[in-house]
Design a protein that fits this description.
The complex is a heterotrimer of chains A (about 180), B (about 80) and C (about 100). Chain A is of the alpha/beta class. Chain A has helices at about 1-20, 20-40, 45-70, 85-90, 95-110, 120-130, 155-160; strands at about 70-80, 110-120, 135-140, 140-145, 170. The termini of chain A are far apart. Chain C has helices at about 1-25, 30-55, 60-90. Classes of the chains: A alpha/beta (about 180), B mainly alpha (about 80), C mainly alpha (about 100). The interface of A and B includes residues 50, 68, 69, 72 and 90 of A.
Chain lengths: ~180, ~80, ~100
């Protein structure tokens, strides 16, 4: 039992280092803290295990989240035409290169990407949700709708022009500003 | 009794695999919740086999505090980056 | 006699928990997984603790296990509600409304 817990410690620490999203790293560190509390218990030190349970799974998580508030969240809606949304949507390879380019952009600009697949119409998303980008793929052309207050627009345009791996034809729709 | 320990450890590893491969963030949270409950079961069984009452304090601490991390992460995601 | 009944109830609880873990690999989207795993997992948890209480008889040990049982029974559905509410408000939708 002890060896299995030690192997779990190795796997979670490597996963927490190499992941691209910081929120996932916080969850991996929570799993790490659970496993190391169990290791302390098997080494006949239950008092250290109680301290680890209180500190590692509560205070450390909240401290990491308070530190993560400095990162802005960049919400990207990917609008699907007519497919069911399931695990295969998140793992299919046809959309992966587009998503990877956007993740690279977010990592360079110190933003935290959050990608949501949706089936609502663009007007519904505009009315109901906070968004930064809405992506839609119609007949091979990627159409990108940008929020009017998106201050990263110039950086995004420059990045997409310089990126060599990005081979899609794309069009950034003009922003309609409310002149009130 | 040994068989019960082995089965619960295997189930805990399967739940941890869901944390590692889960496509969305919320799948990972679900896996974290499952791993916590399996760990409390293991601690209670260890205390029951060795007949040491003070090990149960550890299980009590996990049951009282293990949910704070999950609830704060879900609130953080729900409110788009601030509490 | 008491020990045998307790071990039997613990085994029933482990079977419930195992069905819950199979459920998180069986389904295709998050809401189905959350529904199956949370309900079955809570039931297995309670059954296992009742088995431990029967095995140890009427003592201080059983009292502590009973306190953990009550806390878990309140908190475990609360966590699942919080997660699923977070997923719904953030915009994870499946199929039509």
């Amino acid at each position: 039992m002890l060896e299995i817990a030690l192997i779990l410690l190795l796997i979670t620490s490597v996963a927490a280092i190499q992941t691209r999203y910081l929120r996932h790293a916080v969850i991996y560190l929570g799993l790490f803290s659970l496993a190391i509390a169990f290791v302390y218990l098997l080494y006949h030190a239950p008092d250290v295990a109680i301290a680890e349970a209180v500190i590692g799974s509560t205070i450390a998580t909240i401290l990491y989240l308070v530190a993560l508030q400095k990162y802005k969240i960049f919400t990207i809606y990917y609008r699907l035409q007519d497919e069911e949304i399931g695990d295969s949507t998140y793992l299919s390879h046809s959309k992966q290169d587009l998503i990877k380019v956007l993740e690279k952009f977010c990592t360079k600009q110190e933003l935290e990407a959050q990608i949501i697949y949706s089936k609502e119409t663009i007007e519904a998303i505009k009315a109901n949700h906070q968004y930064a980008l809405i992506i839609e793929e119609i007949k091979g052309v990627v159409r990108i709708t940008v929020h009017p207050e998106n201050y990263k627009l110039d950086a995004l345009t420059a990045f997409l022009e310089n990126e060599r791996r990005f081979k899609h034809a794309y069009a950034i729709l003009p922003v309609e500003e409310d002149l009130l | 009794m040994t068989i019960i320990f082995v089965v619960i450890v295997i189930l805990m590893l399967l739940s941890a695999l869901r944390i590692l491969i889960g496509p969305t963030l919320w799948d990972r949270l679900l896996g974290l919740n499952l791993v916590t409950s399996k760990l409390i079961m293991l601690i209670i069984l260890v205390a029951s086999v060795t007949q040491q009452t003070f090990i149960l304090d550890l299980a009590l601490g996990f049951a009282l505090l293990g949910f704070m991390g999950v609830i704060f992460i879900s609130l953080y995601v729900q409110r788009k980056g601030r509490f | 006699m008491q020990e045998t009944i307790g071990t039997l109830i613990i085994i029933i609880g482990v079977v419930f928990v195992a069905i819950g873990v199979i459920g998180i690999y069986r389904f295709d989207n998050f809401y189905a997984r959350a529904l199956v795993s949370s309900k079955v997992d809570t039931v297995g948890y309670l059954t296992l603790m009742i088995g431990v209480m029967i095995k140890n008889g009427f003592s201080f040990f059983s009292l502590k296990v009973f306190v953990i049982l009550v806390i878990t029974m309140i908190i475990n559905p609360l966590i699942t509600h919080s997660m699923v509410r977070s997923a719904h408000i953030s915009g994870y939708k499946i199929g039509k409304e």
